[in-house]
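Q: What would this chain look like folded?
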Amino acid sequence: MLYSHRRQKAVDLLVKLDLDVLVFCQPENIRYLCGFTGSDGALILFSDHLVFLTDSRYTTQSNEEVTADQVCEYTTKLDGVVAQLSSRDIRKIGFESTLSFGFTRELQVKGNTDWHWQHLNEELQCLRLHKSSDEIDLLTKAAELNADAFASIVEMIKPGVREIDIALALEFALKKRGAEEKAFDLIVASGPRGALPHGIASDKLISAGELVTIDFGCRLSGYHSDETVTLAMGTVSRELQTIFDTVLEAHDRALDAVVPGVELSELDRIAREHIKNCGYGDYFGHGLGHGVGLEIHEAPAVSPRSKMTAEPGMVFTIEPGIYVPKVGGVRIEDTILVTDDGYRVLTKIPKTFSKILLN
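A: My prediction, written as C-alpha cells:
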C-alpha cells in the first residue's frame, strides 16, 4: 500500500508533465518509490508499468526488497536503461537533473534519435516534499536517537578534550544505539573555530571560556536527524554571550512564525532581520534551513530565494547562526514538522544557554 501510493504520485506527475516515461537513478528517489536500499540501480516508470534494474551485486537484494512490476539485471546501467526504453513506443522522457552530464549524453547518443529528453529538478521535489506518518515516525525516532546519544557523551565535553574525540564518541554512541550511519561529518568547532559554519572536528583542544558548536545527526532506516547545539565552557565573554542570545532569539522568532501558508523566505527574513538589527548582519551568510528526509539536505530550502510556502507534512530545519572571524560563532538548529495549525519540534535537546560547569 505504501509504495502503491508513492507510485501513483509519480504517475500523476508523469501525466501532469505530459511525459511518456520517467527515469530515476538517484538512490533516494529509487528507495522512496520501490524500497530498494542499495547504492546502484535505475527505476523506469511508465504510466502502467514499473521496472527496476540493477547489476548482479544486488539481484538477490532487489528481489527481496523491491516493489515493482519487473526486476531486471543489467551488465551496464546505460544499456539496461536504453533497452527498457526501446521496448516501448515513447517520445518524451523525463530524467533527474542530478544525473551526470556524461551519462545523460550517452543515453541520448545510444537511444532513439526521436526521443526528447527533459531534465527535471523542482518538478520532482513534490514527490518527497510532504512526509507521510511512516516517514514522520522514522524522523522522530532518528531525532530521539540523537538526544539519547548526546546525553551519553555530554560529560566529556570539557576543556582539555580534543574536538575530534568528541566527534568520534558521538558517532560511536549514535551507531551503538542503532544508527545506520552518521548523517554527515560531525561538526565540533570550539573557540575561534566556531566562526567556521562547517568546522569539521579537528585536533584542537577545547579551552575554558569558549563556546563549542556541535552539529550532528544520523541516518535511521534511511531517514536523517539534524540538529546543532552550542555550549559554553564555563563563563564566556560578554560578546560571546550577546552572540548566543542574538542567535537564540532569531531561532525562536522564526520558529514562532511557522504556520501553514507562511512563505519560507519570510521565516528567513524574520531571523535575518533580528540578527542584522543586533549588528551581526554581515556574519550570517547561509540560509535559515533545509528540508530533511531521505537526504540530509533536500527540499524545501528555507532561504531568501525560496519560492515555497510552509505546508503540513513538510520537515525542515531552523538554524540561524553568527560567525565572527577570530572571535567565534554560534549556530542553534532544530528540525521541525509543519502541522495543520503550526509546527512540532522533532529534535529533543534544549537549545537555551547551557554552561558546562568547570572544576
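The two ends are 57 Å apart (CA to CA).
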